[in-house]
Structure formats: structure tokens, C-alpha cells
Task: structure prediction
Amino acid sequence: MYQASEQITSTFFYSVFVILITSSLSFAQHGMPTDHPAPQQQTVVEETSVLPTVESVLLAIKTASGDTLPEIEVLFGIPKTIPNTEYQLKVSDFHTHWKWKDRPINKSFEELNPAVKVEVFDTDSLLYYQWAFQNIPFFGLQNALGHSEDVEKGYGFTLINYTGLVIPEDSISVDTE
Result:
């Protein structure tokens, strides 16, 4: 009986010893535990200081009902009427590498995710705008319907091609990701 008691005591002290050593190692590696979590490392993406520009874009157009209209070439910043409609398009804010970070940013000048902002007007009134992506066809079609009370006013766009890309010489692109 004495031997069994001695073995239990020995096992108990060995377990306590292991727990203390493990706790000491953990404390040495991680410091004193607190109620406040350690700050997480954040990835910082700094957008380019100036956006690139293009001379024109070629857009595919789809109506809210799913009909495809003829492709249309639109000069950058100049309104153009959608054929057989009363609506006009204007393209602006060209991005070579579109990314969302609380707002659209141009992550870099590499042509990885080209996109252009497409504004739809009825006469002089802006109805809505959406982004036309080269890599994501008709991405904003559903969003357009939310901006327009009349479903027939909803159009979706895909950036087919663009010409005359100009990367600003004095701009800096920093990607710390």
C-alpha cells in the first residue's frame, strides 16, 4: 500500500512539474497573458496616386431583361447615346488593377483587373453608375436594377477592350501586400 501511495505521489509531482515547465516555456515565448489580444498584422495596400487614362473603351451591353445590345465604343469622358434609346453613357475612372478598399482603388499599374466606371444618364440626370470589368462579365447588372425604379432602365456592362492606355509618369504605385 505504501508503494502505491508513493507511486501516486510521484506521478502527481511529475505532472505538476510538467505543467510548470510547459507554462514557463509558454510565458517565455509569448509573454504575460492579458485580457487584450495582440494587434493583428494588417496588410496595407496603397493606391496609386493618379489614375491611368484611356482614349476609348469597347463595352458589351446587356439589358435588365437579358437582351444583348450591339457593342459600343465610348470615348473616355465624352457622353455617347446607347443606340435606339434615350440614354447616354459616359466612362471615367479607368483602373488597371481595380480593388475595393472601402472604395475603389487602383492597386497597381499592372493590367490584372481592368475596370472602368460607366455612368448612365437620362438627358442630364445621372440614373446610376456601375463598374464594367474585363474579367467579370456584366458584374453590376443586378446592382443597376437597385438604382433604377424602372427595370427597363437597367443595363449591365462588360469591358471588352480599351485603347490608348496612358500610365502617369509621375505617379507612384506602392503595394505592401
The first strand starts at residue 45 and ends at 46. The first helix runs from residue 2 to 30.
